[in-house]
Amino acid sequence: MVNEIDSVELQNEIASGKSVLLYDIRSEMEVARGVLPSAEHLPMHLIPIKINEFPKDRDIILYCHSGARSYHACRYLMQQGYDNVVNLRGGILDWARNGFEVVGLSR
């Protein structure tokens, strides 16, 4: 079972100052339309290559457009021994529907 967080919970954590490690796993074309504040872009297909860079001592929140790809990415990471991964249920779509900020990706 994949741990999940919804947009309202995530926004509350960010607003309270909690340090979250947030990865947008969508394609370049998708992230060009905007990302969650403080998100890093890590295309889904690069996760297996970058897996050793993921910390095991803090929560890692993954998101995509609707939450489906990030759910599967979380499952993959859990199979690799990461129990600190969390899926953003509903993805950036739900985040935007709730009126939360979407920003340009900082490089």
Describe the protein in words.
The chain has 107 residues and is of the alpha/beta class. The chain has one domain: 3-Layer(aba) Sandwich (Oxidized Rhodanese, domain 1), CATH 3.40.250.10. Helix content is 34%, strand content 16%. It is globular.
Radius of gyration, in Å, reads: 13 Å
SSE run: EHEHEHEHEH
Low-confidence stretches: none
Can you tell me the CATH superfamily? Rhodanese-like domain
Provide keyphrases for this structure.
107 residues, alpha/beta, Oxidized Rhodanese, domain 1, five-stranded parallel sheet, globular
Secondary structure: elements and pairs:
Layout: E1 3-5, H1 7-15, E2 21-24, H2 28-31, E3 40-41, H3 47-50, E4 60-63, H4 68-79, E5 85-88, H5 91-97
Parallel strand pairs: 1-5, 2-3, 2-4, 4-5
